[in-house]
């Protein structure tokens, strides 16, 4: 086996691609830290965050509502990975571009109204204005005090952190209470970055 010691390897003039290993290479070992323009190559999960509402929200009558207040990052039994999401009036911004998995959950209680449906929507915008639904889950409320616990999962390709955002919406057929809790995840979401866009 031969050994090459040098400070710099560059491409030939006119070429922008440098290939390490040829057709016979199955493994390339790196001793030390492999970097991309001075930054360490990401390994494993680089962003994971979890948010929830801390107080009950009451929706009166039929229709939709955005959960805009009482949001907090999980602050017990959770360790943030990366920079994390930022929130303003229930609108959540991403820390970096990438492909993200969003897992939403809610506990919704019929508030004495007629029986009907309870829907949880995870919504996205790509223009910082118009929202549509990534994923949703629904349950029927068979009595005036029924509980629903919809959960939904979606994947969002965030190519611009200034315009690509998410929010949580409910859609109900009668008055409900959306449960909040400051000590555990009852209504909220988890965001995990799966990889680069």
Q: Any idea what the radius of gyration is?
A: 23 Å
CATH class: Mainly Beta
Distance between the termini: 39 Å
Number of domains: 1
Q: Which structural class do you get from the secondary structure elements? A: mainly beta
Beta-strand portion reads 35-45%
Q: Indicate the CATH architecture.
A: Sandwich
Low-confidence stretches: none
What kind of sheet is the major sheet? 6 strands, antiparallel
Query: What coarse outline follows from CA principal-axis ratios?
Result: elongated
CATH-defined fold name = Jelly Rolls
Query: Mean pLDDT, rounded to whole units?
Result: 90
User: Helix coverage percent of residues?
Assistant: under 10%
Key features?
17 strands; 6-stranded antiparallel sheet; 197 residues; 0% helix; elongated; mainly beta; single chain; Jelly Rolls
Show the helix and strand layout:
Layout: E1 35-36, E2 39-40, E3 48-53, E4 57-59, E5 63-66, E6 71-73, E7 86-88, E8 91-93, E9 98-105, E10 108-110, E11 116-125, E12 131-141, E13 147-148, E14 151-158, E15 165-172, E16 176-178, E17 188-195
Antiparallel strand pairs: 1-2, 3-6, 3-17, 4-16, 5-15, 7-8, 8-15, 9-14, 9-17, 10-13, 10-16, 11-12, 11-15
Notes on the structure:
With 197 residues, the chain is mostly beta strands. It has one domain (48-195): Jelly Rolls. 0% of the residues lie in helices and 44% in strands. The chain is built from no helices and 17 strands. Strands 5, 7, 8, 11, 12 and 15 form a 6-stranded antiparallel beta sheet that branches. Strand 11 and strand 12 (131-141) form a beta hairpin. The two termini are 39 Å apart. The mean pLDDT is 90.
């Amino acid at each position: 086996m031969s050994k090459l010691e040098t400070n710099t390897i560059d491409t030939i003039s006119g070429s922008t691609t440098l290939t390490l290993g040829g057709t016979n290479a199955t493994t390339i070992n790196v001793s030390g830290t492999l970097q991309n323009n001075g930054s360490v190559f990401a390994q494993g999960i680089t962003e994971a965050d979890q948010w929830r509402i801390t107080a009950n929200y009451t929706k009166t009558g039929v229709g939709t509502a955005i959960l805009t207040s009482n949001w907090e990052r999980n602050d017990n039994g959770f360790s943030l990975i990366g920079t994390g999401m930022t929130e303003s009036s229930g609108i959540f911004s991403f820390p970096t571009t990438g492909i993200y998995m969003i897992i939403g959950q809610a506990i919704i209680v019929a508030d004495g109204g007629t029986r009907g449906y309870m829907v949880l929507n995870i919504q996205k915008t790509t223009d910082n204005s118009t929202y549509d639904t990534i994923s949703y889950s629904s349950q029927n409320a068979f009595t005036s005090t029924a509980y629903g616990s919809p959960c939904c999962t979606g994947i969002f390709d965030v190519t611009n952190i200034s315009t690509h955002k998410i929010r949580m919406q409910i859609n109900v057929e009668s008055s409900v209470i959306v449960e909040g809790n400051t000590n555990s995840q009852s209504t909220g979401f988890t965001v995990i970055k799966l990889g680069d866009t």
